[in-house]
Every structure is written in C-alpha cells, then in structure tokens.
Specification:
The protein is α/β, with parallel strands linked by helices. It has two domains: 4-139, Rossmann fold; 145-221, Rossmann fold (3-Layer(aba) Sandwich). Helix content is 49%, strand content 12%. The protein contains eleven helices and five strands. It has helices at 20-31, 45-55, 71-79, 99-107, 119-130, 142-149, 157-161, 166-176, 181-188, 192-206, 211-221, and strands spanning 11-16, 36-42, 59-63, 88-93, 111-114. Strands 2-1-3-4-5 form a five-stranded parallel beta sheet, sandwiched between helices. It is globular and about 50 Å long.
Length: 228
C-alpha cells in the first residue's frame, strides 16, 4: 500500500527506461492525472536506485532491457534497500513472453505491462499497483507463470505452506488461478471482507508482498500446477 502519511496525496511515480521518448511520453500522460505525479525518471537501473533514495516513489515503471544495470537487477536492488518503504515495481517490456518477466516477478515486482499498452491501461496499471494489487498484462496467463516456475524442482509444500490454515490454503489456490476477491467470496460462500482478511493473512504468514507473489509461491510450492 501507499504509505499512510501519503494516503490523500498523489501517487508518486518514477519512470526508468533507456528510451527518452518513452520517459517523456509516459511522464506527460501520468502527470496529467490529478491523483498521480511523476517525481523523477532515469535511463538505467543504477539511476533507479539513486532515484528511490532521493525521491521515494510509490510506484516505479521499470524497463527490463537497459544498458549497464538492467531492470531485473535494479528491481532486486530497490526492493532490498533497508530502511525504506519499498516502492512497487511495474516492469515494462516489448515482449509478452520475455523470460525476464518471470524472474522479475520472483524478485518482487508487482507485475508488468507491455509498452504498447493503451494510455488507459497504463494509468489503470499505476493505480492498481499503488493500491497494493498485482498486475499482469492480459496476454500473460497463470499457465505461463507456471511453465516458468515449474522448471526447478518444487519446494517441500508442507514446509513452505505449514503456517496456513485449510481455509487460507483454499483462498491461496483461488488467487493463484486468477480469481478476484469477489469471485473467491462467491465460490467459498464468504463475504468479500473475509476473503480480504484471508489474503492478508496469507501474505503476512508467508512474508509475501502482494498477490503476484502469492501466485508464484503457489506454483513453486506445488499447491497448484500446470494442468491442475
């Protein structure tokens, strides 16, 4: 979530991309929104790290493929910086099957967006991620995530997921296959607020940042898998 002391302030956005036209175009578009403000931009990952220290953005639009420090390394660096409210990272890519996308999700990014997304999709993406939700471009499905994370041997499910109750495991499964809170509530005959509580408990018990990492953890642990 956006830190509480900024709840009523515009979402602070940083744009990191080695193409000046992308930075300028996205910046102008986002700055025109009353609830968003661009606090800085940079052309590679090292500039992203410095910008986070200096400007404390809430959301970073981060290109994956950049010279010097790429977006994946920058995401790892930014999300491991001590003593900060870590920003949420949206990875930008021109490739809807880019293998770095999946590594970025595992590194802690909140999702990604294709660079040819519409203006409306870009604005919505920043708002969605700032609110603490995960973001996946429509052309990327949970099966593609599963295909990637299934390459290594799954972890010991009982050890990884042992802190969770049966109900929390059930909610986690439904999150992993792309169900929204309202859809989970309808499926399990629960209120939407109760579902939100269960999702928050899953995040807290497993030390996960958002729903994207819930999806990754569910596949890595073997709780769900390709074809299930």
């Amino acid at each position: 979530m956006v830190p509480s002391d900024r709840e009523n302030a515009p979402v602070r956005v940083a744009i990191i991309d080695d193409q000046a036209m992308v930075r300028q175009g996205f910046g102008a578009l986002l700055d025109a929104q009353p609830d968003l403000t661009v606090v800085g931009s940079g052309s590679d990952g090292s500039e992203a790290v410095e910008l986070v220290r200096r400007s404390r953005p809430d959301v970073i639009l981060m290109d994956i493929r950049m010279p010097q420090m790429n977006g994946l390394d920058a995401t790892r660096a930014v999300l491991s910086m001590p003593g900060l409210d870590h920003p949420r990272v949206i990875m930008l890519t021109t490739f809807d099957a880019d293998e770095y996308v999946f590594s970025a999700l595992q590194a802690g990014a909140s999702g990604f967006l294709l660079k040819d997304a519409t203006a409306e999709d870009l604005i919505a993406a920043v708002r969605v991620v700032a609110a603490g939700n995960a973001l996946l471009a429509p052309s990327i499905t949970s099966k593609l995530i599963a295909d990637y994370v299934a390459r290594p041997a799954p972890r010991d499910t009982s050890a990884l997921l042992s802190p969770l109750t049966e109900r929390e495991l059930g909610v986690m499964k439904l999150v992993a296959v792309g169900k929204s809170n309202s859809e989970i509530a309808e499926h399990l005959f629960l209120s939407e607020q109760t579902v939100k509580t269960h999702v928050s408990r899953v995040l807290g018990k497993l030390g996960l940042r958002d729903r994207t990492q819930v999806v990754i953890a569910a596949y890595e642990s073997g709780l769900v898998g390709v074809g299930r």
